[in-house]
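batch job 7 of whatever, protein = Tetratricopeptide repeat protein
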Amino acid sequence: MFIKALLVLVPVFTAARAKAEKVFDFTATCQQAYQQISSLKITNGQLLVQQARKENPDNLIPEILDSYIDFYVLFLNEDKAEYDKRIGHFEERLGRIEEGPSNSPFYNYWRTVIYMHKACVEIKFGRQWAAGWSFRKAFSLIKENKKNYPGFQLNNMIYGPMQVAAGTIPPGYKWLASIFGIKGSIKDGMSLIQQFLNNNDPLAKLFFNEASFYYCYVLFYVQNEQEEVFRFIAQRKLDLVNNHLLAYMAANLAINNKRTEYAKNIIINRNKSSEYLDIAIWDFEMAYVKLHHLETAEAIQYFQRFFAKFRGNFYVKDAYEKMSWCYYLQGNAQAAEQARKQVLQKGSLITDADKQAQKDAKSGVWPNNLLLKVRLLNDGGYNNEALALLHGKSAADFAKAEEKLEFAYRVGRIYDDIGRDTDAIKMYALAIQLGKDRTEYYAARAALQIGWIYERQGKKELAKQYYTQCMDMEDHDYKDSLDQKAKAGIARCEGT
């Protein structure tokens, strides 16, 4: 009887033990939650996460979904109070994930994701050193996971962009990469991302939008294939109305690609439901849309709305500088000076744009009115209007050396944008001659642009010469970001 009783109890104990084991189960509810969260419908996602926990308290996927929520809230809004409340969650979740089965490909993959979330948030809150160590940990984990589970498709979504990022570390930061033991390849990284996007694996389909987000950014900034980005968005029919993450990505890249009207349409036509995370980014982007068409009064209104809502520091100095330019172009010197004072008092010095705004504000010098208008119109893609302003002008019409330099550079950019490559190269060459020993970024950027033109023409050796010339110039504005772009250009030309 005793033996029979044991035999009856064995299945009961086994079932209890199995129930207590932690699992990585991307259930239908978890998938729905992920889709809501990655569209920035955070509240809806949170409710589904709670439901998933009730369905199986031992499922660890809700921990990952909560990490995504904290990441988006902190990264997009940069609220210090929220940071203090949420930053510790990442370490707590890492501890819970480590309770899961270590022989699962999800084990190190999800740890990688949490470390990446933590790294990106730490950058936004000025903890660059901590972010570096989090990135290193993530890089090591995903590299190991790729080796142990080569057929696990999710590896490629993360490892690919990491490879690209590691392959574009500027020369000035090589020492840091060496300390962290990070080495990458742009070519290999792009190949991995593309493999993931073209895969029919169910997980690849589920994570397609997130992968597209990464892919479009590296394609735009590293591969320098801006036109391909917008073809991809159209061909893959990315939802720019109901997925706010993709809408933000497309609008942001469009503004940086001088597609102002395209960006404006995305911002205006996105789903305005209150279900989405409330972020100040839309006002920030619309301010630039208006600024780039010299609609200064409207731009000021959007900048003010951004400042009233945003709690972070990234691009705050830059935004105050742009608002000061609006007042300056209106002839309102008092308001322009007041906005410029805010540049010195608000924000941080993490981004190159914010550093430049701080430097400009400290100088006390205002830009040439005409050249500023030309710059803004060109930045918006309104090249015919910019050329009209410059009609009949030459470098001789400008008294200051820095204005002659900027004139040459601005004309080169306009010619470049409208496909007049030969004329663009001539003006860029003049900018290099006038500015190679100055601290303005124009000469270095001109060298980079010539490199892009020659690379586009298939003249890769010539392109490499100009990319190298860009990196060889010292002590100029935007040094790190321009070096990174030039290094990526050399890598493309060499196929590495």
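notes: The domain at 280-366 is CATH 1.25.40.10 (Serine Threonine Protein Phosphatase 5, Tetratricopeptide repeat).
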